[in-house]
Amino acid sequence: MEKFRSVLDLHLKHHSALGYGLVTLLTAGGERVFSAAVFQCPCSATWNLPYGLVFLLVPALALFLLGYVLNARTWRLLTGCCARGARSRSCGAALRDAVVCAQLSAAAAPLTWVSVALLGGAFYECAATGTGPLARRLCRGRDPTCEAQLPLAPCGLAQASDAQALLKELKAQSQVLGWILIAVVIIFLLIFTSVSQCLSPVSFLQLKFWKIYLEQEQQILKTQATEHATELAKENIKCFFEGSHPKEHNTPTIKDWQQISSVYTFNPKEQYYSMLHKYVNRKEKSHSIRSNEGDTVIPVLGFVDTPGMNITPELCPY
């Protein structure tokens, strides 16, 4: 049991890193399966380029869009945005939403796909051999039949010896581009993370406390919501069968739910750890908390809107 709890604690502390690692491994494995079992270069001067680019870029685009679909902050922005009450939003709120969209982590899987595909070289080789200008440049000063035979090289059907030699050169180019892409992504992530941490409005230990607070808030919110929903359902069912009027239940209004469901913004004048925290501490009940003056989107505080912290209390008794 102690070993199980140790593994569970490790997962809870590093669930984001483990999630990105799992996505990366699955994407890399999927690319290898596609490359070995599905991809078959047509070895045609007409089809090599579009066929290779489709396998190189279209799955990356699909993974990029899927990353947005699976990100909770996307649905925080989109849910109810076309309702009547959302039409009067200010330019500042729209700008903050655009900043949040730019910060959504949807590029890990597509960049992994492109990087692994370039390291394998099959997609790039097929696309490059069907590119007329590139073929002419590579075959300059070589066998006269090189340019015509180059599209057949990925299938091993090229009779010109120069074509097969150029295929190795194309694979080398693909792998170099793959390593360059990996290096650029790592450098960018390092710079972005360093700058985000440097610009953090709170200290390192306060960030840890903040995450602990969010875990507890989500646990208690889920428990209380379950109890409230159960009581309301029981009362409604009881009244249905007995033909009586239900007791009054104090349930949050649509406006209340909308306010605590909006994307978190940080205000240095008022320090709140979540939109729920900000809502219960508002000065007036009619006061909106969604677009106050001075609210900003801080990249390092993006975890506030990220679910997945709902730890089962029975498994982690403290």
Roughly what percent helix?
A: 55-70%
- Along the chain, the helix and strand elements come as HHHHHHHHHHHHH
Instruction: Determine the strand fraction and express it as a percent band.
Output: under 5%
- Low-pLDDT sequence parts: 1-15, 308-318
Mean pLDDT: 78
Task: Note the main sheet.
Answer: none
Can you put this structure into words, describing what you see?
- It is a multi-pass membrane protein.
- It is found in: Membrane.
- Pfam families: Ca_hom_mod (PF14798).
- GO terms for molecular function: monoatomic cation channel activity; voltage-gated channel activity.
- The protein has 318 residues and is mainly α.
- Among the domains are: 16-80 and 90-199, no CATH class; 252-282, no CATH class.
- It contains 13 helices and no strands.
- α3 (48-69) packs antiparallel against α6.
- It is elongated, with a radius of gyration of 27 Å.
